[in-house]
Amino acid sequence: MLLRIAVKNFLSFYEEVIFDMFPNPKRKLFQSHIHNARVPLLKQAAIYGENGAGKSNFVKVLWFLKSFVEQSGFISNNEDLEEYRFQLTKEKDLPISIKVEFCQDEDYYLYEVELGKCPIERFWESGIGIDDNKLLFERKGSELTSALVSHSDSARQLLHKNK
């Protein structure tokens, strides 16, 4: 289940924009709309807004991230990202940043990717605001770090082990 997605410098989202499924704690009405698991979440959500507000770009973020993960990672070069970067700024080398927090079988995770000159990809076990997040996997450029394997293993060794 998708809990939260944060997007920065992607299409129409220049500053960080956060979409989440967390209920407003100040609202006490409509408690039946809230799923009370370990983390209270809205049971449903709708995306609405004026024309040109970014609804389609939100869907494109999800598509982009899905494609990125399915194709095993990094875009070959910065030029491949140009069509996705926010264009109305003079700073053309700012990275695209996407963070996704989600739940799978009562386990909570945070996945983040920063696509710029040196691409960074991280995968965390989320502490959901109660505990610290635990880093499971990090890739900076071609350097791979993982809590799941010894630090002496290189990325190439890991890839060959998993074939």
Q: Can I get a quick summary?
A:
The chain contains two helices and nine strands; from the N terminus they run ββββαβββββα. It has 163 residues and is an alpha+beta fold.
Architecture overview:
The protein is α+β, with helices and mostly antiparallel strands. 14% of the residues lie in helices and 32% in strands. It contains 2 helices and 9 strands. The protein is flat, with a radius of gyration of 18 Å. Mean pLDDT is 79; it is low at 151-160.
Taking strands numbered 1, 2, ... along the chain, how are they ordered across the largest sheet?
A: 2-1-5-6-7-8-9
What is the total tally of β strands? Answer: 9
Dominant shape: flat
Alpha plus pi helix count: 2
- Approximate strand percentage: 25-35%
Q: Rounded to an integer, what's the Rg over CA atoms?
A: 18 Å
The sequence of SSEs as H and E is EEEEHEEEEEH
**Structural class from helices and strands?**
alpha+beta
Let me know the largest β-sheet: 7 strands, antiparallel
The average pLDDT value, as a whole number, equals 79
Q: Which bin fits the share of residues in helices?
A: 10-25%
Note poorly predicted spans.
Answer: 151-160
Query: Gap between N and C termini, in Å?
Result: 29 Å
